[in-house]
Amino acid sequence: MKRILFLFCVATFFVPLKSQTVQAMISFEEDIYDFGKFKETDGKVTYKFEFVNTGGADLIIQNVSASCGCTAPSWTREPVPPGGKGFVAATYDPAGRPGTFRKYVTVISNSNPGNVRLTIAGEVEAKPKTIEDDYHYAMGPMRLTSNHLAFGNLNNTATAEKQLEVINNSEKNVEIAFQRVPDHVTIKAVPALLKPNQKGMIVATYNAPKRNDWGFVIDRMNLTINGVTEREYSLVVSANIEEDFASLSPEEMANAPVINVDNTEFNFGKIDQGEKVEHVYVVTNSGKTDLLIRKVNASCGCTAVQPEKNVIAPGESVDIRTVFNSAGKTGNQNKTVTIITNDPKKSKLILWVKGEVVKS
Q: What number of other Cβ atoms are within 10 A of residue 147's Cβ?
């Protein structure tokens, strides 16, 4: 009996030792590689990390993931037997990424440990900038830094100025003028006549009181170049116009209107594509003076019916009906209805319409 017990103990001692020796083991010759300094114009660079399976079982690479800007396009796909060799190739794309970099590639396998991190590093010399790099938008013989004059947030009492850089990219003189300019925008080219390769500015002034609108608004106008305009000679002007409450006294703030809504989110659940759903939001003035509904605007796919009245007395309520049309839409939907009022603490209220549209 003692002999049997002794043999059992010996067997149980050697079993785990044997199980440890039959594991795969990935051993890289190096886990860091520095490309040194190279030019952005040289294009993608690749280094092949080589490894040996120093374990006692077949090694299988299950996945390779890379950090931003780095890819691992190839690695040994077939099982690597004990003593066999394999590789993981890491590629770095320097396009638009001048300067030093340090990126990582994670190798996941049946080895112990299961995750190994490889590192590539280097320094990218920026390519010389071209006119196209600095002036992204082409308009005939000219190039511009942008085709959008974005004025951002503007008080309804304010005026603001924005500028765009332009260059005459041709061998002839270019004369710049403008068409379809809205009344609330004044715009000019400085200078109006650009000689070959000469730089200039487009200077625009936005008059928010003249725009007489609320929220995010967009206008479009056209350039004429040497008296000619084309479809692509278009400039976009945008602003987000907000009410100026800076002049309100503490007493006026205490007696200001206060907007409340019965719920800020309507979830219609799951509907078939093509169905329409409706919801009514109840807006109440909980303040002490009239609440003015300046504007109601819905995002694409939603329609918000204007309220019956835009002046809500203290304690009164008004319905805002919203219709969502699911035609042409699938998947999760997140639409908004924006209400702009004269509530100084919450002048913009966003309501949500959510749900899922499935193909019937």
A: 16
* 303 conformational bin, left if phi > 0, alpha if psi -120 to 50, beta if neither: beta
**Full-model pTM:** 0.71
- Please name every residue paired with 35 in a beta bridge, in sequence order, or none if there are none: none
16 preceded by a cis bond (ω within 30 of 0)? no
Of 176, 153, 154, 157, which Cα lies nearest the Cα of 165?
176
Length of the chain: 360
Here the tokens at position 5 are 């017990």
| Residue linked to tokens 């010996």 | 10
Q: Return the percentage of the chain with pLDDT > 70, whole number.
A: 93
Using CA atoms, how far apart are residues 204 and 212, in angstroms rounded to an integer?
Answer: 18
Write the CA distances from 324 to 67, 269, 290, 360, integer angstroms: 40, 12, 30, 17
Fold of 250-358: Immunoglobulin-like (2.60.40)
Quick one: 131-242 is in which CATH superfamily? Immunoglobulins (2.60.40.10)
Per-residue pLDDT of 13-26, as tens digits, reads 444 444 445 899 99
Residue 101's pLDDT is what? 95
59 contacts 109 by C-beta, under 8 angstroms: yes
How high is the mean pLDDT of the chain? 92
Residue 194 Rama label (left phi>0; alpha psi -120 to 50; beta) = beta
Amino acid letter, 102: R
Maximum alpha-carbon separation in the chain: 111
